[in-house]
Amino acid sequence: MMEIADSNLNYSAVDPVSDRIRRVTPALSLELNSSRWLLAGAASFDGEQFMTHRDFNDPRARERAGMSLQYRATPRFVIALAGSYFGTNTLNDLNTDTALASARVRGKRFTATPSLKLQLSPTRSLSASANAVRTNIVNGTGMRSEEGSLGYEQRLTPRSRLTVDYAHSRINFTGDAPQLVNTDTLIVGWSRELGMYDAFSIQAGPRLTNGTRLLDANISLTHRWSRSSIALSLTQDQTTVIGTAGIVDSRSAQAKYSFTPARNLTFFTAPAFYRSSRGAFTGTVFRVAAGASYDITSFLKAELTYGRDAQHGAIDPLFADATFSRSVTSFGLSTHWR
């Protein structure tokens, strides 16, 4: 159960609505494991009750379900299938790559991903996968995408590895402004563990989208101390914005610092910056998050979090110069049994 204070329920730049929310999230997970088979599944939903704006009450504010099936045909050959479903009455939950504000309407996302992996040797492997995603929005723009990818991994040393991945995707936007986007990417990556406490990785390569070239890149660095850790990442790629037809250029910088002064107590802070652009429209989001978690017992945990988003501009022409802000404070108790 969680108590939440939200300063902008309707994600409005003009007339934000604030309220307190009580959220209950029942969840169930299952795992079956044998020498060759692995089956895992999980499902949960959020029931929300608002203190003032009772029209927002929703016993199924969010619904989640996922499953994965893995078959180890031989010690070197693995076949897998994964699928997921996520339904929400807050489209902002689906804009994880851009953090852009979205209308408070219901949307659904379905994914299916079959894959296989072949271990050629102790240091080399090949993989292939297909990914299908469908997003539906009430009275809005939907999206269907299919992607096929091939990957190669070479362990150069016990602490470093090289990866090469090629992917072709086809994205079909439906609604008032239908579009078809074809994309090819070739990404080369190198990662290395720098001693016991540090790790570094870089991935980069060309992306060709309907004849236009772009450089995709991701750089990440992590460092661990005895009781704390820090992770930094920089990303440049292309993505989609829920409810909007077309591809968006995306850049982001994220960091997370965590500190564990005691075995059952952890503090964290996570600032982030997102910049999304398409043509003459640009949306910039500054995000800060902080929180703490405390393990009361082996099956009961208390969590306190605070997050604030400040957005300037948007991809939507109606809000090209708008300014959005939202703060969310939450405190909750979670429990689990095995």
Quick structural summary:
The protein has 338 residues and is mainly beta. It has no helices and 20 strands. 0% of the residues lie in helices and 71% in strands.
Q: What does the model show?
A:
There is one protein chain. This protein is an all-beta fold. The protein has one domain (2-335): Porin. Helices cover 0% and strands 71% of the residues. The chain is built from no helices and 20 strands. It has a 20-stranded antiparallel β-sheet that branches. It is globular and about 60 Å long. The mean pLDDT is 94.
Topology, pairings included?
Elements: E1 2-6, E2 19-24, E3 27-33, E4 37-50, E5 58-74, E6 77-88, E7 107-121, E8 124-137, E9 142-157, E10 160-174, E11 179-193, E12 198-209, E13 212-224, E14 228-239, E15 248-262, E16 265-269, E17 272-278, E18 281-295, E19 300-312, E20 323-335
Antiparallel strand pairs: 1-2, 1-20, 2-4, 3-4, 4-5, 5-6, 6-7, 7-8, 8-9, 9-10, 10-11, 11-12, 12-13, 13-14, 14-15, 15-16, 15-17, 16-18, 17-18, 18-19, 19-20
Write out key terms for the chains shown.
338 residues; mainly beta; 20-stranded antiparallel beta sheet
Mean pLDDT: 94
* Count of strand segments: 20
Rg computed from alpha carbons, rounded to a whole number of angstroms? 22 Å
Q: Which bin fits the share of residues in helices?
A: under 10%
Spans of at least 5 consecutive residues with low confidence = none
Structural class based on helices, strands and sheet pairing: mainly beta
CATH class: Mainly Beta
Form type: globular
**How many structural domains?**
1
Count of DSSP helices? 0
CATH architecture: Beta Barrel
Assembly state (oligomeric):
single chain
> How large is the share of residues in beta strands?
over 45%
Major β-sheet, in short?
Answer: 20 strands, antiparallel
CATH third-level topology = Porin
